[in-house]
Design brief:
about 260 residues; alpha+beta; eleven-stranded mixed beta sheet; about 30% strand
């Protein structure tokens, strides 16, 4: 009975995931994801975990009509392993891009409201670094929901949960959800610039007596990642699992060492 109560509490508790993000191109993100999965498999052992990832474009500048006191930008993202990141409010999920046509994309409904956009609208975006233009047609609006897919989406999201984040003279809206094919080799519309990963433990498979030992094992696997043993591009987890004992939580959020 005690074990069942602990499992129920952990399954609904926030912050029970290992969340990692970093700057990487497509090849690096693929290799880093494989290394991270291997490291976490060694840490979680028989307990098992669900693994999710997202590829992110670089910064994409919106037109001046959306400018206020800051520069308006967005980031395109493709989420893997979670199916749909939410439920559609209107329209349809983006299909793979087609040559000579705007890239299909979907936005959180709250973000679309901030930008006064609706399904069918076309955004002209410019890569913030290269200036390369990309047209995106909005095919759908969505909202996140409770459940594993919704939690994974929110943890993978590099933009504020409100759909907009202002920092350093820029306001980032989004994310702009696109098909993974928009990052793919056949018709790459967006170069991969960042990646994020989430590992969520299979709570029901963890014996209560092994929780502390498992937390220590995962912390040990995180340290080599920060010191270039696995991948120097990883950042420290944005939030370490809150169900770790306090000493584990403190050690697992130590500053990231820079790598050359």
């Amino acid at each position: 009975m005690l074990g069942q109560a602990v499992h129920r509490k952990l399954e609904t508790a926030p912050g029970t995931s290992v969340v990692v993000s970093g700057y990487a191109n497509a090849a690096q993100a693929s290799a880093d994801g494989a290394k991270l999965r291997t490291a976490l498999r060694a840490a979680f052992g028989a307990a098992g975990f669900a693994f999710y990832h997202a590829d992110w474009s670089g910064l994409l500048r919106l037109s001046a009509r959306y400018a206020a006191a800051s520069v308006p930008i967005t980031q395109a993202a493709a989420f893997g392993g979670i199916g749909r990141p939410g439920v559609l409010v209107s329209g349809a999920w983006p299909a793979p891009p087609r040559p000579g046509r705007p890239v299909p994309g979907a936005l959180p409904a709250g973000t679309a409201a901030l930008l006064h956009l609706s399904v069918g609208g076309v955004l002209l975006l410019h890569d913030q670094v290269s200036g390369h233009p990309v047209e995106v047609r909005l095919t759908g609006l969505f909202r996140t929901v409770a459940g594993p897919a919704g939690v994974a989406y929110r943890e993978l999201d590099l933009i504020d949960a409100s759909g907009a984040s202002t920092q350093g003279g820029f306001t980032t809206y989004g994310p702009l959800i696109v098909s993974p094919a928009a990052f793919g080799p056949a018709l790459p519309m967006f170069p991969v610039a960042q990646a994020s990963w989430v590992a969520r433990p299979v709570i029901a498979s963890i014996p209560v007596t092994r929780i502390t030992a498992l937390a220590a094992s995962i912390t040990a696997e995180q340290r080599p990642a920060r010191s270039c043993g696995c991948c120097g591009r990883w950042s420290a987890p944005r939030a370490s699992p809150r169900w770790w004992p306090p000493t584990i939580r403190r050690s697992s959020t130590s500053p990231t060492r820079s790598c050359s």
